[in-house]
Amino acid sequence: MAQNLEELKKICESCEGCELAKTRTKCVFGVGNEKARLMFVGEAPGEQEDLTGTPFVGRAGQLLDKFLFAVGIEREDVYIANILKCRPPKNRDPLPAEEDACIGHLREQVRLIRPRIIVCLGRIAAMRLIDPEYKITKQHGEWVERGGYLMTAVYHPAALLRDPRKKEEMLADMKKLKAKLDEYDN
Ligand code: URA
């Protein structure tokens, strides 16, 4: 077991636990405040993330940044990671075997960061972390307690790029998230 995030990152960077190790440019470990109270978990790196090694820096990431800014959450205060640390070819959905091979890295990350709130970005993360039957259109913004963590899911920013009508609901969920964070501060 890794003693700290730096050690865990090195383990991930040399991981050959699934086929994606062969096609990745960079392992996208995660980024942000190592003592964050709030952690976002997305699906898997896309093209820009694979090239830079940083999660959510492409178009979807820029939209996420806008929502964070809109509700007054600083990106520097949160931690952002993905279910998969390596990009699936052509951004296809992660395979169950890839998730199984990679999920241990995320669990270790959560153990080391110990956030109070974990927010799944999109259906894939919600199905893996909250409920295999999770229905994002119905359940987004609902809060659940899992293993001592307060959890919710919001639309994946890429889904908002495809369907901008969902942005209003996203803003409402993000405002609720900010209110939850503020509750912990007071
Ligand atoms: N989509 C994700 O789910 N994660 C990223 O890091 C980028 C896009």
Task: Pick out its properties.
alpha/beta; six-stranded mixed sheet; binds uracil; 9 helices; 186 residues; 13% strand; 46% helix
Polypeptide structure, described:
By secondary structure, the protein is of the alpha/beta class. It has one domain (5-185): Uracil-DNA Glycosylase, subunit E (3-Layer(aba) Sandwich). Helices cover 46% and strands 13% of the residues. The protein is built from nine helices and six strands, in the order ααββααβαβααββαα. The chain has helices at 5-13, 20-23, 47-52, 59-71, 96-113, 123-129, 136-139, 157-162, 167-185, and strands at residues 31-32, 38-42, 79-82, 117-121, 144-146, 149-154. A six-stranded mixed β-sheet has the order 1-3-2-4-6-5, sandwiched between helices. A hairpin with a 2-residue loop joins β5 and β6. The radius of gyration is 15 Å and the shape is globular. The mean pLDDT is 97. Bound molecules: uracil (URA). The site of uracil (URA) has 14 residues, from α4.
Bound molecules: uracil
Proportion of beta-strand residues: 5-15%
Overall tally of domains = 1
Briefly note the CATH topology name.
Answer: Uracil-DNA Glycosylase, subunit E
Question: Under the CATH scheme, which architecture would be assigned?
Answer: 3-Layer(aba) Sandwich
Strand order of the largest sheet: 1-3-2-4-6-5
Fourth-tier CATH superfamily name: Uracil-DNA glycosylase-like domain
* SS elements, strand count: 6
CATH class: Alpha Beta
Radius of gyration: 15 Å
N-end to C-end Cα span: 34 Å
Regions with pLDDT < 50 over 5+ consecutive residues?
Answer: none
What is the helical fraction, as a range of percent? 40-55%
**Biggest sheet, open or closed, and with what strands and sense?**
6 strands, mixed
How many helices? The count is 9
Class from helix and strand fractions: alpha/beta
Give, in order, the helices and strands. HHEEHHEHEHHEEHH
